[in-house]
Specification:
17% strand, alpha+beta, single chain, 418 residues, 16 helices, five-stranded mixed sheet
């Protein structure tokens, strides 16, 4: 940690010729007031639009000229700017990232606003994406966790340069940032560069305020829109990101819908042919979490799909999974973890997320040991606590809302339409 509070974590990777670097900032949609919805994501765009030293074109040329990959992302509780490049270009690449996060001049705001409005329009045209925000609205009603990260066209259309600049100064502070790097590097070198970056950032005036996540009672949110399929999610509260059971939750997610051999993939898609896409997912935050099931299917199949999904969720809570199924899920996760660790970008992401989120940083072997320690009774207990259909809300985007309402009235009678 630098004197200003900026945290630095690195992982040297023997034999690597590349270096992955990320500037992680502890701000996302959870930190926005309702009238600011989408400003974290909009600011992420503006980081690429010029500094007092470089124009937007020069930033793009700077990365392209060294063959670097560069991108950024905004979530509910983080923003990250990341790049991967040949190790010989550390001076140039670190300098570009440092300029972007410390000194955006908010140039070309109006053209970039139009770009973001087009991104919002694209999001509105993609119900398979939008339905995941809709289930957030159902699980966390009236809260930042229930709003889309991307914001809405009316609010994004009103941001001005002064407002976005103030948001940057208030959140892009040394103690709210983590520099993570993995690859062919020297830790002390990254620390020295990070100290220089910290000196360019505005010191924090006060603590950033995060909207808490408080799940509501299960309910159904159905949005009517012209679609070829019904896009449906079930979701409810889940584990926090630091919960000791998170590795068991990952194994359970894999068993339910996280792989081709998972129960939902095999039963809903392979055996019955009810859909093309079905799966489960989990999200963890500092104070709460969420679990979810997604299926996209034609209206004629929605009743049977919901019946089968509900039955599978009950089954995993009521009967311990066989050892061969448990072992397969463990090995799947371990294999993906080790294969992913061959990428410097994946290593950097794991470090940055862990430190920014206040989680312990585990070695690959420690994570593998935690997967190996998961038992069938652990799985059943988690399924009973979080995945029973009676505990879940529902969200759907469909041409005909009545079809969905009739289906959940039959199979999930605890739900009340919002």
């Amino acid at each position: 940690e630098t004197d200003d509070g900026l945290r630095v974590i690195t992982e040297p990777v023997a034999g690597a010729r590349s270096l992955a670097l990320g500037a992680w900032i502890g701000v996302g949609s959870r930190f926005e007031q309702p009238g600011e919805a989408g400003i974290s994501h909009f600011l992420e765009h503006m980081l690429f639009k010029g500094t007092s030293r470089l124009s937007a074109a020069e930033i793009a040329q700077g990365f392209d000229g060294i063959g670097a990959e560069v991108n950024a992302a905004t979530g509910r509780d983080y923003t990250v700017v990341y790049t991967r490049f040949l190790d010989q270009h550390i001076d140039h690449a670190f300098g570009l990232v440092a300029d972007m996060v410390s000194d955006p001049v908010m140039a070309e705001l109006e053209p970039e606003r139009e770009v973001v409005l087009e991104e919002i329009a694209m999001y509105e045209d993609d119900p398979s994406d939008q339905v995941h925000d809709l289930i957030g609205e159902a699980v966390f009603p009236g809260q930042a966790l229930g709003r889309p990260v991307i914001g809405t066209a009316d609010i994004v259309g009103a941001f001005d340069r002064k407002e976005v600049g103030a948001y940057h100064r208030g959140h892009y502070t040394p103690r709210n940032m983590v520099i993570a790097a993995a690859g062919n590097l020297e830790h002390d070198d990254i620390v020295a560069r990070s100290r220089a970056l910290a000196a360019r950032l505005t010191p924090a005036v006060g603590d950033t305020v995060m909207d808490p996540g408080e799940p509501g009672a299960p309910r159904a949110v159905v949005k009517e829109k012209e679609t070829e399929q019904v896009h449906l999610t079930l979701g409810g509260p889940g584990l926090t990101r630091g919960d000791d059971r998170r590795h068991a939750q990952a194994v359970l997610d894999n068993i339910l819908g996280g792989s081709m051999s998972s129960r939902l993939f095999q039963e809903v898609r392979e055996r019955r042919g009810l859909c093309y896409s079905v799966g489960t997912y989990t999200s963890g935050y500092s104070d709460c979490g969420q679990v979810g099931v997604y299926v996209g299917t034609r209206a004629a199949n929605i009743d049977e799909s919901l019946e089968v999904i509900a039955a599978e969720l009950r089954a995993v809570a009521e009967s311990e999974v066989p050892e061969d199924e448990l072992s397969r899920a463990r090995e799947n996760l371990k294999g993906r973890l080790v294969l992913g660790s061959e990428s410097t970008a994946n290593r950097m992401n794991r470090l940055g997320r862990s430190v920014l989120g206040g989680n312990e940083v585990l070695t690959i072997d420690e994570v593998i040991a935690r997967f190996d320690a998961v038992t069938a009774s652990d799985i059943a207990a988690l399924a009973d606590e979080f995945w029973r259909p009676e505990r879940l809300s529902l969200a759907a985007i469909t041409t005909d809302g009545d079809v969905v309402e009739h289906a959940f009235a039959r199979h999930l009678p605890h739900l009340v339409a919002a």
